[in-house]
Amino acid sequence: MARHELLQAGLARLRRHYLSHRASPVSALVHSPHPYGRAFGLVAVVLLGAWLGLLIVGAVRTPVGPVDTSMALRPSVSGGTKINVSPLGALELDSHTAPIRLDVNIDRLDPVRSQALVQHPERLAGLQEEIAQDVAEGTRDLALRSCVAVVSGATALGLAVYRRPRRALAAGGLALALLAASGASAWATWNPKSVLEPRFSGLLSSAPSVVGNARSIVTEFDVYQKELARLVTNVTKLYEATSTLPVYQPDPGTMRVLHVSDIHLNPAAWHIIGSLVEQYEIDAIIDTGDTMDHGTAAENPFLDPIPDLGAPYVWVRGNHDSLVTQRYLQRLKNVHVLDEGRAVTVGGLRVAGTGDPQFTPDRSTVPAGDPAERMAGIRLASALRDQSAAGTPVDIAVAHNPVAARETDGEVPLVLAGHVHRRDTEILPFGTRLKIEGSTGGGGLRAVEREEPEKVRASVLYLDRDTRTLQAWDEITLGGLGLTTAEVSRHLAKAPPPQGPPATRTPPPTGLPSPAP
Q1: So where does this one cross the membrane (predicted)?
Q2: Are 116 and 79 in contact (CB under 8 A)?
């Protein structure tokens, strides 16, 4: 009898254990006796609950000047700030590094407040200060709302999973601690000048007035809130111009140079270049070569649109351009062909360049490799020194291959190159800034050979009209074949560190051939 009672008691305990786990399968998982399992389960609950809390109740609606906005914190790998301006596009700022991102949605232009600005234009003078105050107030409200959101979300999910108030409260406390740590990381890495270097996408990328001109950005604004206010103000003006984007008013003290390269017979490039020349009021276009694919005479009519682009066109030969191509361009109006260190003055700038010493239109031609490029660069550097000695120093040097361009280090403030179909910017050891442009033709006809089309790239360089030094540049990136995305990224030209005189150059060794793109 006693054995029967013990068996009944054991079965009852098993039945209660089975029913409790059947009623709460999630609880069965998170109540694993293994300590690592419990810790992993708690972290999962905290993160998921905090994310749900931010998603459901974390957003704050606040008026910012004449527009209504909503602000929210979102989980992110790299942090930063994203401002969505529907339907015009978005802009991103590298404002901080933390696992949270600030999302700002500009929802609509308030008709009453915007009409008041139209009727009383004198209020525009104080609009930026008003917007800065609105942004500060909205940020404080967002911080408080986010704390409540993560604690509520993690606590509620913890209670649903664990069914124990103490564990639920622990989950809420841990969520608050994680948010505080993320906020501390954002505070420690806060970059108030990030608004000086925004990345624009959508229709905003085609509105230079939103980006602003380089001189005013460099010299007039250095506070995050004021810069954000300026952007919101310009977006407000975009909304007011319902059917057309506002006209760009360039700073008269700034020269604008459009850098293009590696068009590779893509006819769409001429339309893109013409549009950029018109929108940014470009003073000069510099093409660092590979305009053709094979350099044949049959390809020459492709070059005929150049005289009508609306700005002087400076060109150097690439390794896909032949002397036939070069002679054809020399006959075109408004085109300046540079070779063997020849220098010209265009748009107020002194530019010198050299063509690529190699012609490798296909794999049947064995390239001479980097030594030939270095020799061409050394000859260009010698020509630059001759220009300086003659009292006509060069502002920009141009070469197709970056290997040749590097040989001008210390002889010129800025040297432009292409060839490699990717962007890069670096300060060379003796202070010269090397800027390499990607393919403005999206790789040309070869773009169809890849799984994803190569993007179309060009850059607008802003130079001071008095000193002719680079102040800033906009990197313009368009989707490749079949794509319609657009992005403009602003970069400021930091002053290079002081360097000594360039080292004595010696001729490179012969041989060591390398293939060319």
Answers
A1: 39-60, 142-162, 169-190
A2: no
